[in-house]
Amino acid sequence: MVKSEMQEAGLRPGFCGARVRTITACQGCTVCQNGLIDSADLAQEFDRLYCGKDVPHKFKIGITGCHNNCLKAEENDLGIKGAVKPVWIQEKCTYCGICQEKCRHSAIRVDRDNKTLTYDEASCVNCGKCVKACPCQSWEGKAGFKVYVGGLFGNDIQTGRQAVPLVYSREDLNKIIEAVMEYFREHGKKGERLGKTLNRIGWDGLFQKLDGILKK
Ligand code: SF4
Ligand code: SF4
Ligand code: SF4
Fold first, then answer.
1. CA nearest ligand 2 atom 8, residue
2. What is the distance in A from the centroid of ligand 2 to the CA of 203?
3. Which of 54, 81, 205, 212 could form a disulfide with 73 if both were Cys (CB 3.0 to 4.6 A apart)?
4. Is the minimum distance from the CB of 95 to ligand 2 under 6 angstroms?
5. Segment 159-204, tens digit of pLDDT
């Protein structure tokens, strides 16, 4: 009765067991002004492509639209976080200093007197706040995805690690996800979460495999 009514409404039940579980996502850029990616649309795509696929143990995919991380990407077996690579356009800059004030990670230094701006890529977390704050469109931002693997949040807690540099296309993102699941099927033991598998065999093998995929 319940199942037939769900079917009529176009709904289907979630999955349990050793499978990719129901995809979770925050509201993303179509609803939230902070959003850098369309989390909900991405979740629908992942639902079609991955939900219910067999893997050695439960596998959670979570998508969070920006660095505020409401969906906590690093707590998932595979987490996606919206991100931006900022690029400074010197000719448009008035050296007002607003971007330096907005950057919580001290990645930007503006010297108003000498009219210089320095950007420290190593300190940048790709939150995109400088791009949104600049009144002169002197920062341009290319939106992309950060991918984390191996997170756990339950009986054991472990922070997932960023698996690859920023990924800019959904095609590359899907290649990465397919490869992570394939690696898990090859190396994971029944009943072992991805993060535990990586702790047991080491993380480098997966990272090298993903690096090779992006270079193809
Ligand atoms: S993670 Fe960012 S985009 Fe998603 S709901 Fe939170 S603030 Fe909005
Ligand atoms: S906010 Fe824009 S105009 Fe102001 S210093 Fe930064 S880049 Fe230059
Ligand atoms: S993207 Fe964020 S962390 Fe990077 S420079 Fe801009 S404000 Fe700072």
1. 93
2. 39
3. 81
4. yes
5. 999 999 999 999 999 999 999 999 999 999 999 999 999 999 999 9
